[in-house]
Amino acid sequence: MAFNQRHDAREATVQFLMHCEVNGKLTPEAVTNEDETGFWEMRPAMRKVRILTMELTRGVLGERVGLDERIQRHCHNYLISRMNAVDRNVLRLAVYEMFHRLEVPPVVALNEAIEIAKRYGTDDSGRFVNGILDQVKREVTRPWRTAVEPERAADDAPAKDAPEPAKARPAAEGLVVDDLF
What we know:
Radius of gyration: 18 Å
Largest sheet: none
Number of domains: 1
CATH architecture: Orthogonal Bundle
Mean pLDDT: 86
Oligomer: single chain
Order of helices and strands: HHHHHHH
């Protein structure tokens, strides 16, 4: 997935999380197909962006209590419930990616969060989010600047005579319809 698609998905995730909050949908099970359909009617996006957005949204909602506890430990003068809704949901997404999405280098999650906070939050949101995430990053135990591939269990290893996995399509082939919708 291209960088811009991932960025768009992160922005859409923050927006969808805010939609969920406003409507009291605080668990992945509470989000209905009607919620998704209505959201995507208001905010069109490519199919890959929609898929990643919903994956991230369900992940954040599923881990929300733990994410909020982790964030709250570093918000010495703020209650997470009293934070600006944009800042709160940007922080949730960033912390989720830092601790639960191994394919995302933590530094990328931090930088993306700051950019989204600056774009959608208040004049102080970028600095506020940066300050909290700067504290949270001290808890990250994996490499800061690289993605980590989950280790494959010995029984998951492909057999010697198994065919090689399909290679990614070269960029020269261009987009296909599924990339657009």
